[in-house]
Structure formats: C-alpha cells, structure tokens
Amino acid sequence: MKCFLIFLIVFFNGNLFSQSLKITVIDEKGVFLENCKIYKNKIEISPELKENYFLLKVKFNDTITINCHQFKGENFVVPKVENEELFHVVELKRIFQELDEVTITSEKYKKMAGEKNENILDYLFYPKENTFVFIKSIKNNYFLEIKTESSSKEILLNFHPEELFLDCLGNTHILSKDSAYQIWFADSLKYVSTISKKMFDTNLKTLVAKTEKSIFYEKITQHNQLYNLTKSTQEVSDSAVCTIFDKVAYKVARSEYNEIIGMYYFMASEVQNIIEAGIWDGDVVKLGIHYKIVEKIGWYLNVRAKPILCSSYGMLDKICLVNLVENEIFNIDYSGNSIKKIPFSSSNLKNKKVI
Question: Fewest Cβ atoms nearer than 10 Å: which of 43, 92, 207, 222?
C-alpha cells in the first residue's frame, strides 16, 4: 500500500508541472518555417504540427533547440510560470555567405583566382617543347605568357588579343578583331608578319594540311551549308576531295536571306539602295536600315546561316574529316582517297577509335 501511494505521488508530481508549449518559428519576413528540427534537452522530438505553430509538452527548465536549413539555430529554456499553456515565437536569421562579384559572359574567358585578378583569353600547348602559351588580361593590360616546367615569362602586348591559332604549317598566330599576327618566340617575342583578319580567314585559317606535292583546304559556301574539302597541286589548281551539303538547311537559309533582300528593297529609298547602286559588297549586315531588318539579319546569321557542322584535321599520314550532319568520320589519305568511313552516334562517339 505504501509503495502504491509513493507511485501515485511521483506520477502526479511529474505531470503536475507538465505544460503545453506552442512554438511559432518564423523568418525575418514573418513567414512560418515548418521544416524545422526541434530538440528537447538535446534529444530530437516530433512535435504536433498545427496551422502556424508546433505543439509539444514541456516542463520548467527544459532546453528547447530549433534548427532549420539555411538559418542560424536558436535555443531557449522553458521558464517557471503558473500557466498550463505557453506560447513562444522564435525568429531565425538566415545564414548569408558573402561572395565576390562575378560577371556572366558568353566570351571565351576563364576567371583565374589569384592576386593578379587574371583572365585567361586563350592558350595553346606544344607537347614537344612541353610548353604552354597563354594570352591573358591583367588590369586592362594584355600579355602573352610562355610557361614551361622551370620558367614563366610575361610579354606585354600593345593590342587587344582575342584568340591563339596554330595553323597546319605549325605557325602560331595571335588574332585580334581586325588583324592576325604571326609570331615566333623563344627568349623574346617576334612578329613575323601581320595581315588583316579577313585575309587570314580566307587564306590561312582554311588550310587543313600541306604535303610536298599538294595543299588541302576547306571552304564553306551556299549560306554556310555546303562544305568542300579541296586539294590543290601544281598541275591541278582545285579538285574536290569531299563535298557535304545540308540541302534542307540551305533552303531554309536561302529563304530567310531572300526575305531580308525583299524587306530592304521595300524600305530603302532609291537614294539609299546600295544594291541598285552597285556598291554592295555582299555583307548582309550593311542592309540593316530598319530595326525589323536588323532582327531578321540577326536570326539569319546566328541561326539559319550557322555554319555546317563539318571540320577537317590534318594528321601525320592522313586527314580526318568529321561530318556531324550525317554522323560520319572519314579518313582520307594525302592522295585524296577515302581510306575509311566510320559511322557513329552521339551515344557511342566516345568509344570510337579513329585509326
């Protein structure tokens, strides 16, 4: 009987001071945060979730801790009060991480971490010499950096470089917006020649390979939808090695081009019309006399007349032509004969060996 009385006293005494606690957890804007973890005396509990508060049983001196993802946790101790029901509002502060300001651009830049705040514009690697060559900008100045395993040298450039290009003859060029600079470097930088960017794109960038008897070059025409790999020798100036034509894309691009010409004739006055005056050089951008024509030209150049996806690469003993229009790779010998054709798909291209 005494044991039973003691149990009742302990039971009622333990529940006598048990109270209901309503906790509303909000952020700085007063928004209720329901995805919280609540701990009582360092033990995680599962309180009853109501419309805008959590309901849990507590007693005097319990430590309540509230954690929420991306917010700084808070805790408090249940006070001694006579009310059977307590109400507590907890405002959590969001955790912020200060980040450096960044600029998102479509240009060929790579941000490099470091005290100099460098931007790498382009680079080439020369495996035989085990040497990297970079063009980069540092605080509005432009440099060529030659880097080996044991040394690094920076050379100030007096123009704005955009790209490094290694031609099929093994010559290195620095390309700017308007010019192409053929360079030679060892202990110092020397400019071998300088030509216009337009002449470079026409006469040098198109070269694929050169042998003792012939030169191979590529050419894209017909609204950039006809690809030609051509061979030239002393006996024969031009002979087609491989021709790839995207006929559907060509028809669409030609239609868009004709619409631009039609709009120009409709909007240009007789005095303005450079086509009729015979002074138009074929540059479609020069027809942009109205914003509607400019929009049409932008769509034509960047979508409809986007160059056909074909490229050729000169190897040691052959030319490799990658045709992404028909998903084929051609191996062509330096006589101009196709020695192997490999079909592929994007799913298994990485497993193909071009031999």
Answer: 43
CA–CA dist 72, 175 (Å, integer): 52
Distance from C-alpha of 122 to C-alpha of 110, rounded to nearest angstrom: 9
Q: Are 127 and 148 in contact (CB under 8 A)?
A: no
CA distances from 42 to 56, 206, 234, 337 (A): 15, 71, 88, 78
pLDDT tens per residue, range 138-185: 888 999 998 888 888 888 999 999 999 988 888 899 999 999 999 887
SS3 152: strand
In tens, the pLDDT along 208-252 reads: 998 888 899 999 999 999 999 999 888 888 888 999 999 999 999
Query: What pairs with residue 25 in β-bridges?
Result: 90
24-51 average pLDDT score: 87
Mean pLDDT within 69-90: 82
How big is the chain by its Cα radius of gyration, in Å?
A: 36
Backbone φ and ψ of 5, nearest 5°: -65, -40
pTM of structure: 0.57
Q: Collapse the DSSP code of 200 into the 3-class scheme (helix H, G, I; strand E, B; otherwise coil) and give the result.
A: helix
In terms of phi and psi (left: phi > 0; alpha: psi -120 to 50; beta: otherwise), the region of 170 is left
Closest CA to 259 of 299, 296, 307, 305: 296
Q: How many Cβ atoms from other residues are within 10 Å of residue 14's Cβ?
A: 10
- Look up residue 89 and give its two tokens: 């509002």
Residue 257: DSSP 8-state: H
Residues in the chain: 355
